[in-house]
Design brief:
Elements lengths: L17 H5 L15 E7 L5 E7 L1 H5 L3 E6 L29 E2 L5 E7 L2 H9 L2 E6 L18 E2 L2 E2 L2 E3 L2 H6 L3 E9 L11 E7 L2 E6 L4 H12 L6 E4 L15 H13 L3 E4 L5 H4 L6 E9 L5 E12 L11 H5 L6 E9 L13 H19 L3 H7 L17 H12 L1 H4 L7 E3 L2 E13 L5 E10 L2 E7 L9 H13 L6 E4 L16 H23 L8 H7 L4 E8 L11 E13 L5 E11 L6 H20 L5 E2 L4 E2 L17 E6 L23 H13 L10 H4 L1
Parallel strand pairs: 1-14, 12-13, 16-17, 21-22, 25-28
Antiparallel strand pairs: 1-5, 2-4, 2-6, 3-5, 7-8, 9-17, 10-15, 11-12, 11-14, 15-16, 18-19, 19-24, 20-21, 20-23, 24-25, 26-27
Helix pairs in contact: 9-17, 13-14, 14-15, 16-17
Bound molecules: dioxothiomolybdenum(VI) ion (MOS).
Protein name: Acylaldehyde oxidase
Keywords: Molybdenum, Oxidoreductase
Pfam families: Ald_Xan_dh_C, MoCoBD_1, MoCoBD_2
């Protein structure tokens, strides 16, 4: 047997598709071309609540190139639609144009199909809609008395408790009771949401930008009440998603419906402007934190109450209290989630749905508590560490939170730098501060299948790997290529990876931080099965190379499939990734501008399949965390109830200049309870608790505790 390949797992190799992407040769869903391709432009409501009373399409219809105008009056009846909107699921029906009712400003109320994109857009602007408008409810503050307990908060129990929170607070030597607000934020993947729908008889192919291919197939089949076999979804490259592409949304329904009605391929792209109402967003969360500790810093009580908003059509609440339930040991805990209905679009999943805003509250509150106790905030976290999940009494499969904190503190030189007195360090016109936070995110592992085909040419063997998994910019092509190279002992240059086609074996798609662990284990199973099949065919038990095995078996080609899935043991443990963040901020005394000087992130996330792509994931998470902390905020205009932050000119995302030096450390870890390859997820861990570390550093620099994100200059000065 030859020496192990240098391109297998654990090596920081560059993205397999990197060159294609920078050369513009990676084909995204909007880049497939068809003869007679028509273009659709959505029409959006201009009221937040009420119903359509009249639609005048006469001017639009006269325009050159216009093929069809579809509204609720002539839309295809979606037989799966029962007059109600179901709670959002990543594979649920996505009804559109079924009623004249308007539930929020910017709801799709029609679509224009024309020969060119420009014609469709122009005609859409000529359509005149008359409404009977109702009083809209878009003001969070005004509806706080109408909150209710949802059935679930993103699949988790809305409320959990153990012990007695009040008793725990009463016996505390130090306690805090503070409220944090995080604003509505919007997803902004670089690649716009898009669909090209192509019907052939009863079959439809959707070139759709989506994170989850199999769910997209189910959504289309359910929405149009057709057999899944008649639906094909293709998405070889996805330019970011972050949760906004977990489900095919209304735009996909419109595109598929339009293609059917005009009888030719139709492309519909959600514009950047439309993205603010068409694809979901992160909801505004109000979070009350009550923490108590004895004088040694042992938590006696942890209370976390979240109030948020959903739409009038669907019920969704991200689980802000999820991390609060499991991160620290405490005898008394109460975590609740409440919702109100507003005439805004349905909030949806956004990177670390729950943990991202929830960790801002918990980890800011821990900092406030440490300040009350006169304790080093890093030590307070270590003091309350636990190897058993307090929410369910299950052991953690692996938990190196204390190691993350210690390694990060050392790398950052926390002991020498941190000073409990706010405003301790001044440099010219800057106030310098230090902050830290701990983080955790569940590391799910789901059933995932793959197929590998080996081809032999003399002594040379190449492999082609196929799975319907997606690469949303995260490095799926690369880590799966490495998994094949590792398991079959090939060089990665001899491995080809094909993704994002519903014809390929089913994976759980990219989401929930389960992608890498699930896809890689499925890929490994396919490769192991290939080797075992070859050994049988070659009638040998010897440890030969795949080339030798194929030769001995007199085979030039072999295909094997494999499926990985969690065993029952997985459910006996709590499986989470952990992390710690340390940061230094500089705050301008006159302007209140916050500059991020240095950030250290430490993650324990099982085996790191590729340190380079993993580093990219963490950097991306930190960058978004910086946006959450300092710049991102969607604003609702109160009179009309629409979002007025509708471009990058007024919705600010951080750029390179906003980021300082970033160090990322992965703690060595292989968690074979999590899965056979020992991999845990990092995608959502990367954003978790970033904003808290920055906010804590701003407090340390200035003495200002800003509890309402984002921390804009006027809140600091
Ligand atoms: Mo993630 S919010 O599951 O894409």
């Amino acid at each position: 047997m030859e020496t192990k390949t240098k391109t297998g797992i654990g090596n920081p190799i560059s993205r397999l598709e990197g060159n294609l992407k920078v050369m513009g040769k990676a084909k995204y869903s909007s880049e497939f071309s068809f003869e007679n391709l028509a273009f659709a432009q959505g029409i959006q409501s201009t009221i937040a609540s009420g119903r359509i009373t009249a639609i005048d399409t006469s001017e639009a219809e006269k325009q050159e190139g216009v093929l069809k105008i579809i509204t609720y009056q002539n839309a295809l009846e979606l037989k799966g639609y029962n007059g109600r909107f179901e709670s959002p699921s990543t594979k649920g029906i996505s009804p559109s144009l079924q009623t004249p009712e308007v539930h929020f400003y910017g709801e799709y109320i029609g679509v224009v199909v024309a020969e060119t994109f420009e014609q469709a857009r122009y005609a859409a602007n000529l359509i005149k809609v008359t409404y009977a408008e109702d009083q809209h409810q878009t003001n969070f503050e005004e509806h706080l008395d109408s909150t209710y307990k949802p059935d679930k908060a993103n699949g988790n129990p809305a409320d959990t408790s153990w012990g007695d929170l009040e008793a725990g607070l009463n016996q505390a030597a130090a306690k805090i009771d503070v409220t944090y607000n995080t604003p509505i934020e919007h997803h902004h993947p670089m690649e716009l949401h898009n669909i090209i729908a192509v019907w052939e008889g009863d079959n439809v192919t959707a070139y759709a930008s989506t994170q989850m291919v199999e769910n997209a197939v189910t959504t289309i089949a359910e929405t149009f009440q057709m057999p899944k076999e008649n639906v094909r979804v293709i998405t070889p490259y996805v330019g970011g998603g972050f949760g906004s592409k977990l489900q095919l949304r209304e735009h996909a329904t419109l595109g598929i419906m339009a293609a059917k009605m005009v009888d030719c391929p139709v492309q519909l792209t959600v514009t950047r402007h439309e993205m603010f109402t068409a694809i979901g967003f992160r909801q505004h969360n109000r979070q009350r934190m009550r923490l108590g500790a004895d004088q040694d810093g042992n938590l006696t009580a942890v209370g976390h109450d979240t109030t948020s908003h959903t739409s009038f059509t669907e019920e969704f609440q991200e689980t802000c209290g999820l991390m609060t339930r499991m991160l620290y040991k405490t005898p008394n805990s109460l975590v609740t989630h409440r919702l109100m209905k507003l005439n805004l679009p349905s909030p949806r999943w956004m990177r670390a749905p729950g943990e991202a805003p929830g960790s801002f509250a918990l980890e800011s509150a821990m900092d406030e508590l440490a300040h009350e106790l006169g304790m080093d905030p890093a030590e307070l976290r270590i003091q309350n560490d636990t190897q058993v999940d307090p929410s369910n009494d299950k052991p953690f499969s692996s938990r190196q939170l204390v190691e993350c904190i210690r390694i990060g503190a050392k790398k950052f030189d926390w002991k020498n730098k941190w000073n409990p007195k706010p405003g301790h360090t001044q440099k010219d016109n800057w106030m310098v501060g230090y902050g830290m936070s701990a983080s955790s995110r569940a590391a799910p592992y789901l059933k995932s299948s793959a197929e590998v085909t080996l081809k032999r040419d003399g002594d040379a063997v190449t492999a082609v790997l196929k799975t319907d998994a997606t690469d949303i910019g995260t490095g799926t092509y690369t880590i799966l290529g490495q998994t094949v190279a590792e398991t079959l002992n090939l060089d990665i240059k001899d491995v080809q990876v094909e993704l994002g086609d519903s014809k390929f074996p089913v994976s759980p798609g990219s989401g929930g931080s389960w992608g890498a662990a699930s896809f890689a284990n499925g890929t490994r199973e396919a490769c192991i099965n290939a080797i075992n099949n070859l050994k049988t065919l070659a009638s040998t038990d010897e440890d030969l190379t795949v080339a030798e095995l194929m030769k001995q078996a007199e085979l030039n080609e072999l295909t094997a499939t494999g499926t990985a899935a969690p065993t029952e043991e997985f459910d006996d443990y709590s499986v989470y990734s952990f992390g710690a963040n340390f940061c230094e901020v500089w705050v301008d005394k006159d302007t209140g501008m916050v500059r991020l000087e240095h950030f250290v992130n430490v993650a324990s996330a099982g085996k790191i399949l590729n340190p380079k792509t993993a580093y990219g994931q963490i950097i991306g998470g930190i960058t978004w965390g910086v946006g959450q902390a300092l710049t991102e905020h969607s604003e609702v205009e109160p009179n009309h109830g629409n979002f007025i932050t509708r471009s990058f000119a007024d919705y600010h995302v951080p750029v390179n200049l906003d980021l300082g030096k970033i160090d990322v450390v992965f703690v060595p870890e292989e968690d074979y309870i999590a899965n056979p390859m020992g991999v845990k997820g990092i995608g959502e861990l990367g954003i978790t608790s970033i904003a808290a570390a920055i906010g804590n550093a701003v407090f340390n620099a200035t003495g200002r505790r800003v509890r309402d994100l984002p921390i804009t200059p006027q809140k600091v000065i």
